[in-house]
Each structure stands twice: as C-alpha cells, then as structure tokens.
Automatic annotation (TrEMBL):
Biological processes, Gene Ontology terms: endosome organization; intracellular protein transport; organelle fusion; vacuole organization; vesicle docking involved in exocytosis
Chief location bin: membrane
Protein name, entry field: Vacuolar protein sorting-associated protein 11 homolog
Source organism of this protein record: Kalanchoe fedtschenkoi
GO cellular component terms, semicolon-separated: CORVET complex; HOPS complex; plant-type vacuole membrane
Organism domain of life: Eukaryota
Bilayer topology: Peripheral membrane protein
Keywords: Coiled coil, Membrane, Metal-binding, Vacuole, Zinc, Zinc-finger
Domain RING-type: 853-888
UniProt KW Cell cycle keyword: no
SUPFAM superfamilies: ARM repeat, RING/U-box, WD40 repeat-like
Amino acid sequence: MYQWRKFDFFEEKLAGKCTVPEDVTGTITCCSSGRGRVVVGSDDGTVCLLDRGLKYNYGFQAHSSSVHFLQQLKQRNYIVTVGEDEQVSPQTSAVCLKVFDLDAMQPESSSTTSPDCIQILRIFTNQFPEAKITSFIVLEEAPPILLIAIGLNNGCIYCIKGDIARERITRFKLQIDDPSNSSITGLGFRMDGQALLLFAVSPNSVSLFNFQSQPPRLQTIDQIGSNVNSVTMSDRSELIIGRPEAVYFYEVDGRGPCWAFEGEKRFLGWFRGYLLCVIADQRTGKNTFNIYDLKNRLIAHSLVVKEVSHMLCEWGNIILIMTDKSALCIGEKDMESKLDMLFKKNLYTVAINLVQSQHADAAATSEVLRKYGDHLYSKQEYDEAMAQYILTIGHLEPSYVIQKFLDAQRIHNLTNYLEKLHEKGLASKDHTTLLLNCYTKLKDIEKLNVFIKSEDGVGEHKFDVETAIRVCRAANYHEHAMYVAKKAGRHEWYLKILLEDLGSYDEALQYISSLEPSQSGVTVKEYGKILIDHKPAETIEILMRLCTEEGDSSNKQSSNGTYINLLPSPVDFLNIFVHHPQPLMDFLEKYTNKVKDPPAQVEIHNTLLELYLSNDLNFPSLSQLSLSDGVRASKPSGAVSTSKAQSNGKSIANGESSTKGKDREERLQKGLRLLKSAWPSDQEIPQYDVDLAIILCEMNNFKEGLLYLYEKLKLYKEVIACYMQAHDHEGLIACCKKLGDSGKGGDPTLLADLLKYFGELGEDCTKEVKEVLTYIERDDILPPIVVLQTLSRNPCLTLSVIKDYIARKLEQESKLIEDDRRAIEKYQEETASMRKEIQDLRTNARIFQLSKCTACTFTLDLPAVHFMCMHSFHQRCLGDNEKECPECAPEYRAVLEMKRSLEQNANDEKLFFQQVKGSKDGFSVIAEYFGKGIISKTSPPPDNSTTASGSLF
C-alpha cells in the first residue's frame, strides 16, 4: 500500500456544509440509498428521507422502538424495514418486518404525512425461533417478487420469498457449515446466468448457497471470514471481505485476488470501479478513508476522518456519516482535471492506464497517447515516442507524426509507422508512396517483398495499387511492380511494364492470351500499336481468337448468329493498325474468310476497299483516326474516312518497281471481286457503303470498279460518261447497245446522248455514227430532223453519213402518209353511209319482211316486235327487255361504255399528261384525243353570257 502513488482524483463537495439534519432526532442505526435519496433509520423508530445535499424531506414513525435494518428498493418505491414494535403477547416476538409504499401517503394529521404500510410480517415464528439479527438484504427478483435474507447470530439465515405486499410468501431456513454457530456478518446476492447465488459471511467462513437446487445447495469456499461492515459487493458481483491484513475478493469458485492493505477495515464499499475503505490505525487511533484504483494500482484519494458510522453512495457521490451526525460528501473530479494533474507531473503512463481503465472514448485515449509521444519525442526517445504514436493510428492525423520524423530524419521509425498505417487500412496514396520510397532508400528488399508479396492479404486492400506500381517502376523494381499489378488484376499496368520498360513482347503476348476474352480485348486495344510494330503476325493470331473464339466450343452452344454478336468486332481494333495497313489487310481478310455475315460487315468491307484501292497501301485515313473518341467521323455506316490520294493511277508506273505494280494490280482485282461479291444480284442493298466505294474508285482511278458501281446503281449516263472521258468509242457503243435496249429494261435515251457526243466530237467518226444510227432507226428513238440537227454540229461529218438513213426515213414517212390517206377515205365513206342511213330512218318507212323469229327461228306470229335494225322477235322471246335488240345490244353497249370512258378520261389530267410523257411521240397522243373528240368537245354556254369556245376538258 505504501508503494502506491497517491492522487487527489476526488474532492469534497458542499465545502464541509454537509451534515445530517437536526430533524433526525435519534441515533442513526441504519442507512440506505436509492431513487435519488438517502433513507436513515433511528433508534427511536423513525425513518427519515433526505434529498440531495442531505436536506431533510420528511420522516415518519416506522416502528414503536428501534429500527435495526432498512433497504430502499430500486425498482419500486418501497422501503423494507426491520425493527421492534410493542410486544403483543409473551409468545410473539417484538421484531417484525414492514413494507412501506412511499407513493401512497396516508395523512395522519394536518401537519404530517406518512407512507402507507402495506405489509407487516412477524419474522420469528414457531418454525423459525427468535435470535439476534446481524445482517439483512433484499433482492428484487421480478416485481412484485422479493427475496429477503435475514442473517442471525446463530449461523442461520431466514429467507422470505414472494409477494410480500399480499403475503403470498414462502419461508425457508439456511444454515452455514460452522460448528461454532458463528453469527452471519454479511450477505450478498449474485446472478450467475440463470442461477441465483447467495454469499454468506461469518467470522470463521465464507459460504455460498445455490438456489437453483432445492433445497439450496451449500458450498463453503473459504475458512476465514470477517466482521460486520467489512463486507460488500463489487459491480461485477464479486464478494469483497476486509480483514486486518488484507482485502479479499471471492468468486463462485473460491477466493480471487487479494490486496494487502494493513489496518482494521471498519467499512468497505464499491463505487464506480473504486474500492472504498475506512481503515483504523491502531497505533495512532486515527481513521483513514482511502479510495483505491485497483486496476491502475494507485490511491485515488486519501483522507483522515472522524469515526464513521455509515457509508453509502448516491447522487454520484460518496457519503460518509459520522457518529456525531456530521457527514462528508466526496465526488470524483472530471477526467480532464485528473489528466491535467498527471500531465503536470509527467505521469503519462498513469494517465494512459487511467483513461483505458475508465473506458474513455478512443479520441480521448488517443489524445493522451499523443501527448505522451510528444513528451518522449522532446526527450529524443524516438523509438518509444513512435510506439505511442502507432497506438494513435485511426484518430491522430498521420501527417502530424510523419512531419516530425521527416524533420528528425528518422527513416526507420517512419517506416515502422507507415507499415502499421497500411496494416490497419488507413493509408492514402501519399503514404504508400512514402513507404515504398523509404524501402527503396534503405534498399530493404526483404521488407519490400513482405509488403508487396505477403500472403496474408496485406497487398490486396491495404495500400493503393496504382501508387505502389508507379513507385516501384520509378525505382526500377519492375518485378515488384509486375507482381502487384498481376495480383490486383491491373493488366494494363502489367503490360505497360512488359512492353515499355522491359520490351518483353513475347511474354506480353503470352500474358494477353491467358486473360479472359473481355480483359484480353481491352488490353489489346490499349497496347496493340506496340505489339503490331514488333509482333504483327502473333498479334493478328490473338485478334483472330478474340473475334472468332477459335477452339472454344463451350461458348458455341448457342446459335451462330447470337454467338458472333457476343464477340468483339474487328472494327474495334482498327486504331491499333495506324501506319500498318498491310497487317490490317491480312487480319481483315482472315476474318472475312473465317466468319460469314459478321455484324459489322459493312465497316469491314469499307476498310478492305480502302486498303485494296489505295496506292502503295497508303492509308492516310487511319493516321487521322480519333483514338480518344473511338469512332471515324464524317463517313456513313462507320466507314473509314478518306483523304485525297497523293498519287493517281498514272503515277504508279513512274518510280515504282514491277513488284509494286504487280501488287497494286492484285489488290485492285481483290477490290473488284469484293465489290461484286458483297453486292449479290438478289440484294438491293450492298454490304458496303456505295458512296464511299465510288469516292475510292474515283480517287484511285479504278475504272473497272467505277463502271460496275454505276451500272449496279443504274446510273447509265455516268457509265457512258466514263467511256466518253476515256475516248473509248468501241466500248462506248457496246455499252450503249447493252444499256440502251428498252426491251431489256435499258434507257433508250443513251443512244441520243451518244449521238450528241459524236455530233460535238469535232473529228471524223463516220463509222461510229452509222452504227449508232442503225440502233436509233431500229428503235425509232429520235425523229430524223433531230438527228440531222445533232450531227450538223460536227464539221467533219458529210451528208453521205446520213443519206441512206434520211432516204429510208422519208420513204417510211411517205408510206405512212399514204396509209393514213387511205384510212381517211375509208372512214369518210363509212361516215357518209351512216349519215345516209340515219336520214333514211328519219324520213322513210321501214318494211319488215322477216317471217321467222331471230331468237328461236320459228315462224313469226303475233304478238311480235320489230327493231329498226331489221331484227324481229316473238314478244315472248324478248321477255321483259322490249326496248333493245338482243342481237345488237352488246355492240351498242360497248360503244356506250367506250364513250363513257372517254368522257371520264377527259377529266383526268394526270392520265393525259402521263400518256404524253410516256409516249415516244407525244403529238400522236394529243392527236388521238382530238380524233376521239375529247379535247374539242365544247360545253354549253351559261345563262346571260356570250357563247364561249369549249375548254380542253
């Protein structure tokens, strides 16, 4: 005890003004606390209730004589007392137990009130003989059930259990195992799980009763005991016994720790983890009140006091009541005051133990550790200071510690701190950078390996992966950087090191092949340019596996179209072939040969066409790819954008070797085959961008492809324009012959354009003109006058060129005129005959001489019907239709229908103009309308207006 430090962690409250009120008249025999008040019992039978500061509240007469024991219940506002009342008879004892309900006040007079006494029990009965009561305790099991234990001077314990207020109780007796029948000096209840235990202390033993068994099982756990008032219970339900040589702690299985505090223990108590002890010094005769902090092995407070009669705790304070009714109220200082006291004495270890033992929050503990670390740092005890700073990780800003040890150039301590910071997962990118720099500065490869390659998961989430890779690369620790990248799944960093730092292209290709297809595709997009530069063939093989998944049959169980749609497209990898068109062409050719009808076939064909048709495999558009956007702008269907070729077809022969010329010719043939194969005759839309293909053919002077595209698009005029530009008369005539045949869906106007071309040529082309005239005359495409006017513009052509053509046309026209004249005469004769017949019908009578019916050929008898057309019928043969001749009616109806149709067509402008435009000779259509009397038909003039000429319709 004398080696323990003494501190003033407690202070006296109320500045010595704390005394028992004068209203408590008798001698205090018992005390209890709880529910915010102190209850005292006196030898005059009164019970007084004191409020905060020991101020008198009220009192009442509990017993007629002395109050021996009392207890304030915590769960209910009850007071249980044991005292002496008037003896009713010699056979009954004067000692009884009473229960008072403090919430039910019964007015006794106009000036005083007292609580309701809800139960009075006689403690001693015939089964429970009377003895002196030495100890008393009440346990609130579950309201309203109470368990009352009463210790006697003969070693017996009387127990009363049940609802005391309603007297629904059971009584039983317990006996300790002590031959001398020593008195029970202390009792204490303990809940051990579901088991209820009762400690019983006598001067010669410590016993334990287990109420889980019936009757309660007795166990003697020690052969030494204690006197009255030197027994208490800790907050962990440990029994504490004070003897002159020491203070003993007891658990259910026996004696626990022992603290050697000399002196007679007058009173023992427990307050917030502190042991309270009033010790009488036999040599000096003084009483000392000590407060022990057993965890930290210090005396939190020590005070010389008068003779103490009672000790209890309430309102967060310790209350000592003296025999002279004076009192001390002692309260604990706040944590900050206690720490300041320790800091001033540089007792940092004590401060740390104090905050930890009192379960202070982590921030407060960290602050104490920081101050201790600062103290050690100021004394240049860097290792010890760092040990304290490490304990503050998670609460103290790391930069505070890092700055100190950077200034002190204590790289070993700093490394230790940063390691702990990473172990707890609280390191930032900067901390990782600093730690790795420390390792590299120290050249501590072993620690670097432990940090990077430890198998306990340190390298997974406890440092920033990218920072570690970057620092290791900068320090030329490529192996460590690659390990971190591979373990963290940062494939892009792993490949960056292999390709940019080590130049291990084969290993990089191997690594890419080992990745999942999705990851492999991402890495190839990023590093494909470097791989194509050095390993084009191997890179193309990887791309083929990615885009076709060769050999991976497990993924091909679905339909072929669905499976291909899940694979990356070659278009996604075009950017890696910048400045490498030949590998790109090889890759796309292999892909198109392997995969039929891929999803991005339009883009693939566009790219192949640009490669096939370009000069020297120049691919300027690839160098202009926007790699950041990943798209090729300004071209339909995602096609590669084109730029003006730097050389045309004629310049190839100048300055190129025969090998290059042969390669160029092969590529052009591939391009033509692609143009034809990607536009099957049964499809209207080709599998490439037609506009782009036309531009490429024009830029690279690829005549065959251009002619094919124009012909497929039915741009026949552009086709013959190509021949005209090349002055290929033979091909021009053959083309017009094929494309100008209207019988096969051609355009007859091509021959007119061809004739116009020869007419404006300015050179002798007699042979060609004659051949063209043959086709024009055959199909009657142009009138002779137009032919004559067109050819008259060429001064090199003579009249002999068209002499035979004009003669044949004149002869043909003369024959047509003669045929028309004969037709006119015939129609005039028929018209005159019809008019004569009409006149005859109007003026002369008709004689019907038929003797047989035209319908049934039987002899004609009455009633009969005769028609002007000279047909006669029985009336019965006509039926209901007597107004028209059955023989002539169909012909007549056809004429009427034709007339009605012509009248309807006269109002249809669209039909008229459509026939005019669609006819070779529009004049003949108009003449036909006039001949049928449609256009010349006039409408009657309106009323009150002059007669106007008929309109066209």
